[in-house]
Design a protein that fits this description.
With 420 residues, the protein is an alpha/beta fold. Helices cover 29% and strands 12% of the residues.
Length: 420
């Protein structure tokens, strides 16, 4: 494969500083993630802190190809360390998808995740536009990646409100579409994630927030996948980590997951999706700690990577589901450093994470999760959103590459890191 994007100039002194910093951070042992009682949520009402913007990717955004780096003597990057069970979410609806997959290849990850907007693919009964997704699947197969596809947002003609963003009025339509999808890509897509953050009203418009209703949707989608490709894995869409529990804007993710388990989600899936975002807290930190590193977003378990994983695990054990793995289908830390002026209203914590901290937290989180036998594949959010969208969206603060295509410290750190 063409390795040009992997050989961008890297200042030797900066690389040495980065490697020295990473080597000083001892990887936590697997015992750092052990069962703890599910906490009783504080009675206070919290603002709805969400780590990323609403899901859904608009296909084929305009991406201006970047010029090659200035002539000079580049410092080649060391080879990537292969990391089984790790992955990264990508946007492959761009003008240069091979470049994006070369970047992913340079991380040493085994998996990539692409989220698709069902509404963009299907325009009416029997009218499905497959061409772009065909190209994405073909490319991922050509690069030998395992592929997770997340599916969100029913077509307008199937929703009660065609202008909304949510599930179909008839959940059987989701099963029908998932069967068509799985049949088309049988043997070429490894896993499907059914929906995304359905405990948020913004992701579940036109329907009532209710974990039992979500499980009914998962059941329909799972039966569709099993009929279309019995070998493909099915993952339940992860709840969003949020401290609000008003039942209208959101349902707290721990409460929602309990409701999913009560409604029998385990019989339909091979793994439980989880989004353990860390906000500005280190991955080993807990909301119970007497002292906190982050100056804000540190008083609720939903703000902590470790607490979210441990709490979900405790719930699975409570329901006798210890064999069901947690699939970390999104996680990450935002940093606006080096991205220019960004409006961080509502997610101010992104200003409390430096690019160096972002790099260290990501590596340590991968090491914690992959060193724990009940954590399945882990997908970092995200690889290239800043390159696609510039600095206009919160997603970009999580990106491993900058708008100009250069690597952030987190990219280099993850490329070189050893992960169990």
């Amino acid at each position: 494969m063409d390795q040009e994007p992997l050989r961008r100039p890297l200042r030797a002194f900066g690389a040495l500083l980065l490697l020295a910093a990473l080597s000083s951070c001892a990887a936590p042992t697997p015992t750092d993630l052990t069962r703890v009682p599910t906490p009783t949520l504080p009675p206070e009402q919290y603002r709805l802190y969400l780590p990323v913007a609403a899901s859904g990717v608009t296909p084929t955004p305009t991406v201006t190809p970047q010029p090659p780096p200035p002539a000079g003597t580049p410092t080649p990057l060391p080879p990537a360390v292969f990391k089984p069970g790790t992955g990264v979410q990508v946007n492959l609806f761009t003008d240069d998808d091979p470049r994006v997959l070369r970047w992913a290849q340079g991380l040493g990850v085994e998996w990539v995740k692409q989220q698709i907007d069902w509404n963009v693919l299907e325009h009416g009964p029997g009218n499905i536009e497959w061409e772009q997704l065909d190209r994405v699947v073909d490319l991922c197969n050509a690069f030998n990646f395992r592929l997770l596809i997340g599916v969100v947002n029913a077509p307008g003609y199937l929703r009660p409100d065609p202008n909304g963003f949510g599930p179909p009025a008839d959940y059987a339509e989701f099963g029908r579409f998932m069967q068509q999808l799985a049949e088309r890509y049988r043997g070429r897509v490894d896993a499907y994630e059914l929906w995304n953050e359905s405990n948020l009203q913004r992701e579940w418009q036109g329907d009532v927030l209710d974990p039992a209703r979500f499980v009914a949707l998962v059941a329909a989608g799972s039966q569709g996948v099993r009929a279309g490709d019995p070998e493909a894995l099915v993952i339940s869409g992860a709840p969003a980590v949020t401290g609000i529990n008003d039942g209208v804007t959101a349902i707290d993710d721990r409460v929602y997951l309990r409701g999913m388990l009560e409604a029998g989600v385990a019989q339909w899936v091979d793994g439980i999706g989880v989004h353990p975002y860390g906000f500005a807290n280190p991955p080993e930190a807990s909301w119970r700690d007497p002292e906190q590193v982050a100056p804000s977003h540190n008083s609720h378990p939903s703000f902590f990577f470790r607490d979210t994983l441990e709490d979900y695990r405790a719930l699975l054990l409570e329901y006798g589901l210890g064999d069901l793995p947690l699939w970390v289908t999104e996680f990450g830390w935002p940093s606006v450093e080096g991205l220019g002026e960004m409006d961080t209203t509502g997610w101010e914590y992104a200003r409390d994470v430096s690019e160096q901290q972002q790099a260290e937290y990501i590596v340590r989180a991968f090491q914690m999760g992959r060193g724990t036998d009940w954590v399945g594949p882990m997908f970092l959010w995200n690889l290239n959103m800043a390159w696609v969208w510039g600095n206009t969206r919160p997603d970009s603060a999580y990106s491993l590459v900058r708008p100009d295509g250069s690597f952030r410290p987190a990219y280099i750190a993850l490329r070189l890191a050893g992960v169990p």
